[in-house]
Amino acid sequence: MPPLRALLSCLIAAVAGAVAQTAPATVATHYFYWYHWPTEHFDEPGAPGREGHCRHFAEAGSVSYRSVEWHAQNFAAMSGCGIDVALPVYWGAPGAYERPDLAFARAGLQPMADALDRLAAAHSAGPKLGLFYDTSTLSNDVRGALPAHGRADLTTDAGRELFCRTVTEYFAALPRRHWARHRGGVLVVLYSSHFAAKWDAGLGRALRSAFAQQFPGETLCLVADASWGDIGQDLTTSWGAALQGAQLHPGVAQIGPGYDDRAVPGRNTPVREREDGAFYAASWQRALRHRPELVLLETWNEMHEGTELCATREGGAQYVEATREWVAKLRAGADPGEPIVLRWPAPRRQPDLSWGSEAKGAAAVRADYGGDAPARAGLREVTGADGPCRVHDGALRAGAPTAGLGSYLYFQVSDHFAFDVDADFELDVVRDAATAVSVEFDSHDPHGVFEGSYTACRPNATRRDGDWITDTFVLSRARFADRQNNGADFRLVLPQRAGVVRSLVLRRPRR
Fold first, then answer.
1. 95/233 same-domain check
2. CA atoms of 60 and 313, how far apart (whole Å)
C-alpha cells in the first residue's frame, strides 16, 4: 500500500489541477495608445486614395494618449464586453524617451492610471493593466543607439539590463492596484524576438530576478512569442492571429478580427477579409474548443493594420458586441456551434500596382524576347530556385534548377490587367521544337494543388511556324492572385529540365 504522504500528494495535485481547469479564463487585448489627434499616428490612415480601405475612430478629435477621458472610454468599453486586461503596447526604451516617436510611451501611463481611478470612483469597472512589450525598441535605430542598424544583444549585461529595466520601469510608473495578474504573477507579454541580436534560455530568469529585486514579493507571469523559443516563460503565444487565424498554444489562444493595412503607404501585406464578422467568429470557435486559460485579442485599436475591435465611425460597435457575446460563451463553457465556413479561408494578397500600368484595360498582355531587346507589356518572367532563367540570343532560356527541384519558367501577370479574378483566358506560348511544355496556373479549382494555385493545363491547339511552335492553352477560371512561388501567376512546366521560349501572349478569349 502506498504511504499516506504519497496519497496526500496525489490528492493535492489532482485538486490543484481541477481548480486550474475550472478557473475563469483571463481575456486580454493589445491597447495601442500612441495616438494624439491630429499630429501623432494620424498621418497614415486615410491617406489620399486610401480612405476606403481603413476604419477611423468614432470621434477622432478626442483621441489622445494624454487624455484621461479617452483612456476611460476605452477601458469602460473593454470591461463592458468582458475583457479583464488591457495590454498597453509599450515602446520602452530607457534613456531615449526624449525621441519624438517614443515620448508617448511614458507620457501615456499616468493618464491611464488616472482613467482607471476615475472609473473606480464612479463605481464603474475597468480592466487591469498588463504589459505588451513591443520589442521593436531593441533595434538600435528606434532608440537612437549605435551602431546604426544594430540590435540589442540580450546575452550581455548591458542588453539584459536594457530588457529588464524596460519592464520594471513600466510597472514602477503604475500603481500596483492596477497591475494585471495571471496565475498569481504580474502579466507580461513579449512581442517578436526579431529585433534582438542574441538571447539565451536564461533571459526569463534574469527578468524574474530583476522584477523581484525591484518589487519584493512580486512574481511574473511571462508570456513569450513563440519566436523566442524557450526562455523560461510560463506560457507561449504567437503574434499574427488577426492575419493568419487563431494561434493556439497550450493554455493560450490568440485571435483577431481581420487584417487590412492598405491605408499605409508602401505596404503590400495580404488582406484578411473580416467577412462581416465571420472570420472573428470562426477564430472564437477555435478558441473555445481549445479551452484556454488565457485569450489574447489582437487588437483593441490598431487602426493602421485594420485589426481593431473598438467602435469605429464606419462599423459602429459591431465587434464590441461580438466580443461581449463570445466572452460570455467562453465563461459559460458554451458549445461554440457548427464550424463556420469562410469564403476566404486564407489571407488575400494585395495587388502589386508598381509595374505594368500599360496593361490596364488592355485586351492582352505579352512578353516578346525575339527582337534586339525583350519587349514586355503587362507580362514578365520571374526567377527562383526552381525557375532560373535568362534572356539570350533572342529567347528566354531556362537555367539549371537547384538539385532536387523541378524545372519551370515562372511568369507574373500585371495586376493592372487581372488580379484575384474568376475568368477565362487564352495563352499562346511560342517555343522551339525541342522544348516540351505544359502549364500550371493559379485558378479557382478547389481540387487543384494548393487550393488551385497550380492547376495543370495542356495545349488545346498546336501549330508550327518554321522552327517555332505555338501552343495555345485555355486557362479556365483563372484567379491570378500571385499565389505561386516568387509571386507568379502561372508557370511553364519543363519535363526535360530545359526550355527555350521566344514569346508569350495572354488574352481574354475572343467572343
1. yes
2. 9
